[in-house]
Design goal:
The protein is mostly helical and about 240 residues long. It has a domain of about 160 residues. It is built from ten helices and no strands. The protein is globular, with a radius of gyration of 18 Å. The chain starts with a helix and ends in a 16-residue tail after the last helix.
Length: about 240
């Protein structure tokens, strides 16, 4: 697996369909921020716990929905043509949202516990389960099936996948920090923070989703559900 080639292809798709990716991600992140602000404003200080729980629920649903939509969009534009409308992209993910949320929560719990247990197990699980989102969306798998499928796909290529995840994390931290810093300097206060976070997420998240989805297609044989040649276990 050539990490440089994957990042290059991800950048090509990202720049070619930049507006499409940014609109999809931006609408969701702006909506999430607005809904969270409305919840906090409606509940006030007395309902801070309730507001926190409702906001968390909204964030979870929105996060996994946008991840699924970006996977579908990446799969759609791989041939150089955008065939689906914005409505179709969201509609295709809607039936799989429950599986995405369940798998994401279970993976997060397992990875966090792994990090608590001296970090290494967390990194191992993060790598092994990195393909659960594309597996659910593209292969229409259940939450439980996505874990074994992701493990199967990553087997034999774990070090390369881990290396790519590290690079994407660095990109996220560096670029996100710069965007938030610039946006926050332009507009202060809660509104400025909300807009800064929304802009940063809208710009960075699509590229990460594209790269991850491209890895999924590479590991699955290029079509999503096609079998791939067995590889020697190395991780």
């Amino acid at each position: 697996m050539d990490i440089g080639a994957i990042l290059s292809e991800a950048w090509r798709l990202y720049t070619r369909f930049f507006v499409r990716f940014i609109v999809v991600a931006g609408v969701v992140f702006l909506a999430l921020g607005a809904v969270t602000a409305i919840i906090e404003g409606a509940t006030g200080e007395e309902g801070s716990l309730l507001a926190s729980l409702l906001s968390l629920a909204v964030q979870i649903v929105g996060y996994f929905w946008i991840q699924g939509v970006l996977v579908v969009l990446t799969a759609d534009v791989r041939d150089g043509v955008a065939d689906h409308s914005f409505g179709e992209l969201f509609a295709r993910v809607r039936p799989k949202l429950g599986a995405l949320i369940l798998a994401g929560i279970l993976a997060a719990i397992g990875i966090v516990i792994g990090f608590i247990l001296v970090i290494i197990p967390g990194l191992y699980l993060l790598t092994r389960w990195s393909m659960i989102g594309p597996a659910i969306v593209i292969e229409d798998l259940s939450a439980g099936e996505s874990f074994s499928r992701s493990h199967q796909l990553v087997r034999g290529r774990a070090w390369q996948v881990f290396g790519l995840l590290v690079l994407l994390f660095v990109i996220n931290v560096v670029v996100g920090g710069l965007i938030v810093g610039v946006a926050s300097g332009i507009s202060d206060g809660s509104v400025g923070s909300w807009l800064a976070a929304a802009v940063a997420n809208a710009i960075i998240t699509p590229f990460i989703a594209i790269a991850t989805t491209l890895v999924y297609f590479l590991l699955s044989g290029g079509t999503g559900a096609a079998p791939r040649a067995p590889a020697q276990e190395t991780f």
